[in-house]
Amino acid sequence: MANVVGEGAAGRSTRTLRAEGALTAIAADPRPPGRTRRILEQALVFADVAFAAVYTLSADGELLHLAESVGVPRTLCGVRDSYPVAGRAPVAEAHRGRPVWLEPDDLAAQAQSRRVPSRDFFLAALPVRGGGCLLAVSERADGFGADDRRCLGLVADALAPPARAAAEGADLRPDGFSLVMDTGRVRVGEDILELFGLDPDGFDGRVETLLGLTVPEDLPSLMSVVEADHMTIGDRELEFRVLQPAGPPRWLRLRGRLVHGGEGSPARLVGSVADASTVRSDITDVARIQRLAAALATAVTVRDVGRAVVAALRRPLRADRIALAELENERLVVTVLDPPEPEAWPELWRAEWRTEWPDAPVRTMPTLAAALREGRARIWPAGSPLEPALAEVGPGGLAVLPLPAGNRMAGACLIGWDAPHDFGPDERALLTAAAGLAGQALIRARAFDAEHELVGMLQRQLLPRRLPRLPGAVAVARYLPSTAGLELGGDWYDVIPLPDHHVALVIGDVQGHSAGAATLMGQMRTALRAYAVEGHPPDVVVSRSNRLLMDMETDLFATCCYVDVDMEEGSAWCVRAGHLPPVLRHPDGRTEIAEAEGGPPLGVVRQSDFPMSPLRLRPGTMVALTTDGLVESPGSDIDEGMNRFARHLSAADPAHLGPVADALLGKAPRGDDVALLLMRYDGMTFRPLRESWTVWRVPQAVGHARRFTRRTLRSWGVSADIDGALLAVSELVTNALVHTDGQVRLDITLVNDRLRLAVADASPRTPVKPTSIGWEATGGRGILLVEAVSATWGALPVSGGKQVWAEFVLRP
């Protein structure tokens, strides 16, 4: 590289020359610590990018994995951990040898860029010699200039040799190791073999041999590091113990890093192992506290905290029972009992049993109340005078651990023994340390439980409580939240009954996971329902929802699939806004991913076309709508996920939709929220008779409407009870002609013995029934007459106006 700098320096900018010099210095040592990261950092310095990453080929050659990254978190740039090699992502294109330079408009135009963040950025993907690519993201308004592109090219060139050398496995240091993840073969330095007490000539190169020498209690944590399924890219550090021929176990410290191999090479865990026993004074107690701290760090709920405390203390202390209780308003609410059987606990506790756990006031146990006021662990040996509620917990000895958290008391932990128990100084120190850890964890878990309940309540309020009964169809829906923390998802579904036996099936997904995304989801669900009930066609419903979202001026966007099903005809119109298409399961078991045209996501482009695509439904056809959380997962293409979803749907039994939905959700990866909506179209048993008449604005309009009604009813065989219907037609048509402008239409529908008369006009104003009419009034009696002669009446909005209707029950 130095020669290149010397020969072409005259034609390069100062920034380019400085970048070449920095990269040359890094390349002087082929294997310095963190070499790849230091090279990527030069992209931040000299190309002024916000994010830079290198992708390498997986062992099976199917994926490009993120090997190293620098800059802002990748989630802010919409960057994934891995991409399919055969896909069309910029990373895959660069791996095939073609540099990719994308501007914000290019990214927005990509159909698969649903995860692209709201703010604009520029993206570059450059091939790396030997396989893989360099990915860079710039947030500058002018994007990548000429110097920026030259500097990124230098960074890509500098990445190639080390990636190849690492993939081939360079020589190890005495304290280093290199573990092949898929085979378990490991190369270790001489210092590590000495720490494990192994002869270099007798070591068989298997990681199982090393694991067999570790203390069994430390094996699970060590396995979590050396198993590839539990690893992600990044550094790992762990302390564990190995058995010695004589004396106590030795503490070792492992530092490692998972590195994906190059093309044709498996992933490797590389790092070092050093002696850490000099910093361990009391191995047994420290190990117990270390395990408790590790368990409490991952404990999310109050129940999790209780189970972690029981697992860490009951067996080591040989206790007969442990209770963990929260302190709420001077009452102890027990959340974990071990053993859980009521018979193992005092009579007072059983008398105060509340549903699942006991709930007793602190004042009923003065000794416990005093311990909580003092805030320190108290121990009573066998025979100590205690109130019955405590004496029966530990007749052979009782330990009460107040659980402090800052300047407040979170609760208490009671540990009891049946046989007389001697409390040594080590146990007292263990109990004191455990109490402090448990108190802090209990406060965090209580806050999590409260927020989780609030999140769940909000999520339940935003989704339909139950689905309506449909004429000629059955529908079920499921919502499965993500298991990742408290984040609210933006997935939603809806089933909207519409006039004339139409039903709208809606499913959608708002970008992101936050309270803002969930709130916007509720707004979009309400907007779509309102526009649908107004009587607009599907494309207008989605288009107006798009304009509404644009007017909200939010940074979030939403995807949506809207299907309007005509239950009488067995036909449907589908509109997609950046969402997955419906999947149809035909009566013969054949599945089909509907070829429905799609528009952009809602909230991206104000003036957008949302084309309608026709669907044909035969009786027995199942319509399935889902969000991407069910079919998309890291390392798999979404098209592959849709095909897998269609195969599972083909093998399902459409006669029972509930078990079908549960089985489909059971296969979800749970990395994202999932919404699923299934409808089985059975067809209507009785198809209504319908006729329509356009009422012209002529003097004889009302008479024409009455004659049309009479002829229609006679052709249907209805001859009795038509006087009231004719009177209602007269009043409804007269009101429409007198009080509105534009076209007036009369619709007549007969279903079994129910006759429905409806008059539609262009005015959105709903008629109001007068409260009183004087003898001198000249109008206002029409609605009263309609109400008097009909079984029921009402008004509903239609596209651009309203429809006033009245129903009659005919005698057989």
3D structure, described in words:
- It is built from 22 helices and 34 strands.
- A seven-stranded antiparallel beta sheet has the order 14-15-13-12-18-17-16.
- Strand 17 and strand 18 (408-417) form a beta hairpin.
- Helix 3 (35-46) packs antiparallel against helix 6 (146-168), helix 11 runs antiparallel to helix 15 and helix 21 runs antiparallel to helix 22 (782-789).
- 37% of the residues are buried.
- Residues 1-11, 111-118, 162-170, 228-233 and 279-283 have low confidence and may be disordered.
Core attributes:
single chain; 812 residues; alpha+beta; seven-stranded antiparallel beta sheet; six-stranded antiparallel beta sheet; 22 helices; globular; disordered N terminus
Terminal CA distance: 98 Å
- Flag low-confidence runs: 1-11, 111-118, 162-170, 228-233, 279-283
Number of strands: 34
Strand order of the largest sheet: 14-15-13-12-18-17-16
Structural class, please?
Answer: alpha+beta
Number of helices: 22
Largest sheet: 7 strands, antiparallel
Helix content: 25-40%
- Overall pLDDT: 79
Shape: globular
Rg (CA only): 36 Å
Task: Tell me the layout of helices and strands.
Blueprint: H1 2-8, H2 14-27, H3 35-46, E1 51-57, E2 63-71, E3 82-84, H4 90-95, E4 100-102, H5 104-109, E5 122-127, E6 133-138, H6 146-168, E7 176-180, E8 186-188, H7 190-195, H8 207-211, H9 219-226, E9 234-242, E10 250-259, E11 268-275, H10 283-298, H11 302-317, E12 321-328, E13 331-338, H12 347-351, E14 353-354, E15 357-361, H13 366-374, E16 378-381, H14 388-391, E17 397-405, E18 408-417, H15 425-462, E19 473-480, E20 491-498, E21 502-510, H16 515-533, H17 538-551, E22 558-566, E23 571-577, E24 583-585, E25 591-593, E26 598-599, E27 613-616, E28 621-626, H18 638-650, H19 657-666, E29 674-681, E30 689-695, H20 701-715, H21 723-739, E31 744-751, E32 754-761, H22 782-789, E33 792-798, E34 801-809
Parallel strand pairs: 23-26
Antiparallel strand pairs: 1-2, 1-6, 2-3, 4-5, 5-6, 7-8, 7-11, 9-10, 10-11, 12-13, 12-18, 13-15, 14-15, 16-17, 17-18, 19-29, 20-21, 21-22, 22-23, 23-27, 24-25, 24-28, 28-29, 30-31, 31-32, 32-34, 33-34
Helix pairs in contact: 2-3, 2-6, 3-6, 10-11, 10-15, 11-15, 15-16, 16-17, 20-21, 21-22
